Write a sequence for this structure.
């Protein structure tokens, strides 16, 4: 199996049905192409149904941005993993720094959410990354190592299945780069991605570490994508702001596509 590059948009709390329709129309140009990269778009839950057309041959991955840590139950406002899968989501972001910060998500909650998503056959994009204080104090390695240890504390059977079905994507997103326009340098991002791959190799599975996509997030756009994607351990991008502009997002997809 080869390691695939992934370009995944994260619309956060933005978007309307009208924008989804426009996006799908633009995406249509890739429908009949034999792409060597994968495209994903994680939209607010209200838009997944409109994005995921079950009648069409899937050529991109519709996704959610979060799921509940529980299977089902009395949790007003929460969306369970099976509900995302039911409306056609194929992947889900878990542990985004905005959820860790604004929703006070603990490592345990994040691990439980990952487990729920995997139970319902969703590919999981686990977000990890250090904040500005941790970066300034040269604590980034320790922080992301701890985030990986906690997130992957899933039990042997679950990990084995996750590896077998190739359901994991790691998004390295330095918090100080998210939405700030301050993208990490290519050297720094590559070093962190190399560290993550080494961790996966030593603590998860040596062979799987070679095919597991580790994507970069944090102010990626069409101007800096190529330099980042050229790095040997950067296997794509999780793109927030720049994914809201259809033209910009397609420029990034085309950059990634032309590199493979
Ligand atoms: P950004 O967001 O591209 O706007 O920095 C990335 C993310 O939060 O996933």
């Amino acid at each position: 199996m080869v390691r695939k590059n992934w370009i995944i948009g994260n619309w956060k709390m933005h978007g309307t049905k009208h924008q989804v329709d426009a996006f799908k129309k633009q995406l249509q140009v890739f429908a009949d192409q034999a792409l060597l990269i994968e495209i994903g778009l994680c939209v607010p839950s209200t838009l997944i149904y409109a994005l995921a057309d079950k009648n069409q041959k899937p050529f991109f991955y519709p996704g959610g941005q979060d799921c509940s840590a529980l299977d089902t139950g009395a949790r007003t406002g929460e969306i369970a993993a099976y509900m995302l899968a039911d409306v056609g989501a194929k992947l889900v972001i878990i542990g985004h720094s905005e959820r860790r910060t604004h929703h006070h998500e603990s490592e345990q909650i994040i691990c439980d959410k990952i487990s729920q998503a995997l139970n319902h056959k969703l590919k999981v994009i686990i977000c990890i990354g250090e904040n500005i204080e941790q970066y300034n104090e040269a604590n980034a390695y320790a922080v992301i190592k701890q985030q990986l240890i906690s997130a992957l504390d899933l039990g042997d059977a679950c990990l084995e299945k996750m590896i077998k079905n190739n359901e994991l994507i790691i998004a390295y997103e330095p918090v100080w780069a998210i939405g700030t326009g301050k993208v990490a340098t290519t050297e720094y991002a590559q070093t962190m991605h190399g560290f993550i791959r080494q961790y996966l190799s030593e603590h998860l599975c040596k062979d799987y570490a070679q095919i597991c996509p580790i994507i970069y997030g944090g102010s990626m756009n069409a101007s800096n994508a190529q330099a980042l994607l050229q790095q040997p351990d950067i296997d794509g991008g999780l793109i927030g702001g720049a994914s809201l502009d259809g033209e910009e997002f397609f420029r990034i997809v085309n950059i990634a596509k032309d590199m493979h």
The mean pLDDT is 95. Strands lie at 5-10, 37-42, 61-64, 91-94, 123-128, 168-172, 214-217, 236-239. Residues 10, 173, 178-179, 217-220, 238-242 surround 2-phosphoglycolic acid (CB under 6 Å). The first strand starts at residue 5 and ends at 10.
